Amino acid sequence: MNPTETPGGTPAPDGPVVLLGVLKDIHNLGVLILKHALERAGFRVVNAGAMLSTEELVGAAVETGARVILVSSSYGMAALDADGFRGQCDEAGLDGILLYIGGNLSVSRQNRRWEDIEAEFKALGFDRVYPQDVKLAQVVADLRQDLGLAA
Amino acid sequence: MAGIAHLVDFGSTFTKVVVVDLERPAILGQAQHPSTVDTDVTIGLERALEKASGFSDAPVRLRLASSSARGGLRMVAVGLVPALTAEAARQAALGAGAKVIRVFSHELTAADVADLEALRPDLLLLAGGTDGGNRAVVTHNADAIARSRVDAPVIVACNRVASDAVVARLSASGKRCYPTANVLPELDRLDVEPARAVIRDAFVRHIVEAKGLDRAISRVDDIVMPTPAAVMDAATLLAHGTGDEPGWGDLMVVDVGGATTDVHSVSSAPPGQGLVPRGLPEPDAKRTVEGDLGVRVNAHSVAELAHLHELRADLAQALRAPAAKARCDHLAANTGALASSGEESALDVVLGAACVDIAVERHVGHVRETYSTQGTVQLLHGKDLRAVKALVGVGGVFAFGPRPAEVLRAALARAELPHSMRPETPALYHDARYVFYAMGLLARREPALALRLLKATLVPHGSAPAN
Predict the structure, then answer these.
(1) Does B327 share its domain with B430?
(2) Do residues B254 and B298 share a domain?
(3) Inter-chain touch A59–B372, beta carbons under 8 Å
(4) What is the CATH number of the domain that holds B12?
């Protein structure tokens, strides 16, 4: 499985599935941009939509055979929603699935160091944690590295 | 077309024949005789046809039949995640007119397989995985079914990528299987119609014979579908119309029986403004079956539901009266009983309305409010049926009982249930001649004629404002 970029930017048909979803709120522009970027990089992307619970993301990942769940959250309370997410994945047989999260992850971010926010989400079981201004190329590079794919 | 059509239904209690004059066109009448499906189905059919011959001596050009006899089409659905492919498979089976006796999800265990064997379904629907998604579970389940003593044909409607391997494993063990399109090819796209068509085909090929209905084949042109599928077809025809004649648009049909209450909705309108749909996408043509709601066999269980806060207060109060409870017990024990007094007729209206009220509440979507950074968000689970244009009542309680419009109004939206997406101001109709299913059968061959007869036969009650 090697999601190589095809000339038209279409995903490789047997590439790994990346599941995108927005937790608890309805913003979706960033997710659409991310979806486009990941597809151009050769990933098969399934957008599970907005206003999701972690249970719904787990169900969607099971059905789609996703290898990565990439969660977006903008309302600053994701730590509450995502508490127990890794355990739910383990219960559903998704042990080892990659969990990424990005966005406005803490309401008190002005008063906290990014390293602390990142550590908080890593402790919740996320493999990668991104601030709002992350570069899309960084996400693509991380995905390739974590999935063991050629750059 | 000169001549007449006989539209036959092999029910569990009666074999019924609706006689249609194909030339005028007109419904000439209906004859029935107690069913003989447990001995020789042709005996009841012959008697019913003899009675039907009294309506016309014109040549019979068409004779089609549906069947709900011997338990109807009993199906088991197998999927992966309960709220996703398992639910999609259930929706596909219900829409094909089946009685879904059990739904399994995730990997089938040894105990599940033992249950499956004991249930002896007529058909099995195997789903699991979106296209390109999970294939391990459906493959595991195919192996489990292949090793089992289950001899029902298997409809395979799973992850497209896994389908060939699933069919190969089942076929290698001698199971009859029918591959079709995935019921949930993508998370946000339900595709149940191909599976429904294959289920109906398997019904004609296998179930007719298994139920002993093949003896009747020489007397009818075709036994084409389970009876609930005929009701669904009539509802779809009435909503969509034909190429030449428009239908009535989005609508709901409530079919109240002695043992069950079915609700069919045909609607493709998007959810109302400001509603965010959640969960599995909804089928345009949706059927739900309530096995605990009926005006005879289940009269007792309806009375026991009088405590439900969703039930309209006046209906709940009427059902709680001691005399009502006693009458419900009597009806459940004497399912052929007819009302013989004003009080008994009034209770039939209450029972019918309670079945309509609860069945519609379970069928329609519901809105839940939640809060986000953008303010209040209204999440819609299920179908928004507030704007359906027509509401049709089908079944004995409408055809033979008093005050059918009153029974039907129990389906409407009301202030105390603001989150229920019930019909608000539909035009109300009832099937006074009990021929709705027959028009679904006729639609198979003569859709334009069936549509004209439906429109002419259903009795209007005006457009009622919501309660």
Answers:
(1) yes
(2) yes
(3) no
(4) 3.30.420.40
**Number of domains within chain B:** 3
Residues B386 and B307 in one domain: yes
pLDDT digits (tens, 9 = 90+) for B363-421: 999 998 876 666 777 889 999 999 999 999 999 999 999 999 999 999 999 999 999 99
Nearest to B134 among A24, A44, A63 (CB): A63
B153-197, pLDDT tens digit by residue? 999 999 999 999 999 999 999 999 999 999 999 888 999 999 999
Size of interface A-B (CB pairs under 8 A): 67
Nearest chain B residue to A18 by CA: give it: B133
- Pair B161, B270 in one domain: no
Q: Pick the catalytic residue: A27, A90, A142, A146?
A: A27
Q: Is A146 considered catalytic here? A: no
The pTM for the full model equals: 0.87
Q: Which two tokens stand for residue B34?
A: 């107690």
CATH number of the domain at B86, please: 3.40.50.360
Residue B160 falls inside a structural domain: yes
A27 is catalytic: yes
Residue B305 domain-assigned (yes or no):
yes
Top residue of A63, A89, A91 to mutate, by most chain B CBs within 10 Å, is A63
At residue B215 the predicted structure's pLDDT band, cuts being 50, 70 and 90, is confident
Domains and CATH numbers, chain A: 17-146 (3.40.50.280)
The reply to whether B308 and B394 lie within a common domain is yes
In a domain, B444, yes or no: no
This model of the complex carries an ipTM of 0.71
The CATH number linked to B366 is 3.30.420
In a domain, B324, yes or no: yes
Q: Does B370 touch chain A (CB under 8 A)?
A: yes
Nearest CA-CA distance, residue A98 and chain B, Å = 16
Same domain, B307 and B363: yes
Whether A60 and chain B come into contact, CB under 8 Å, resolves to yes
Q: What confidence tens digit (pLDDT) does each residue in A103-148 have?
A: 988 877 677 899 999 999 999 999 999 998 999 999 999 999 999 9
Q: Which domain holds residue B301?
A: 248-439
Average pLDDT along chain B:
92
Same domain, B8 and B102: no
